[in-house]
Amino acid sequence: MIRAGMQQLLAQFADRRRRYQARRPALHVVLEEGAVREVLTEGLLPGIALGEGLRRRAIALARAEVATLANLMEALPLGVQIGVLDAPGVTSPFELLRGREKTFVCISPFRPDTPPHLVLGVAMITAADEALAGYQRIAEQAWARARKGSEGATRLRRLLAAAERAEH
Questions:
Q1: Furthest-apart CA pair in the chain: how many Å?
Q2: How far is CA 138 from CA 32, 131, 147, in A?
Q3: Helix crossing, 149-167 with 33-42: angle to 10°?
Q4: 3-state percent helix, strand, coil for the chain, nearest multiple of 5
Q5: Are the CB atoms for 159 and 37 separated by under 8 Å?
Q6: Disulfide: which of 11, 28, 53, 70 matches 153 by Cβ 3.0-4.6 Å?
Q7: Residue of 102, 109, 113 lying closest to 123 (CA atoms)
Q8: What is the pLDDT of residues 88-137, one digit of tens each?
Q9: Cα 151 vs. chain centroid, distance in angstroms?
């Protein structure tokens, strides 16, 4: 069951990468340091009792993902912008989805790193002007406070190194 959950999560990551490569949508992402620290120490399946081998693999995969994010922050590929907040900034996850003619806000009770065994909750998608204005303001404030580029990449690498030191 646990191995199946990990395989499912890895398959989701692979599918997201494949779809991203096919469409290349513009991405603006703000990560909170607390969430990054958690994934670096708990791995990709936090809260699930794993055998030692699977736990080490989940942590190694999570650390590889964080290293990839740091590399992306320095490479500055077109359409990909990543920032790191050093303090909690957003109380609930959301996405602004911009189409050609309309923008939507998707509000989710789940953080992106929520384990797959936690599946109950209600998400909402709306194009209501009031909701869009409020969430756009939150996104702009979080982005303004976030570390970006080489400064953000350096911060991610320091978090990664600290997690590796703490393990030994």
A1: 52
A2: 14, 11, 16
A3: 40
A4: 55, 15, 30
A5: yes
A6: 70
A7: 109
A8: 767 778 888 888 889 999 988 776 656 656 667 778 999 999 999 999 99
A9: 18
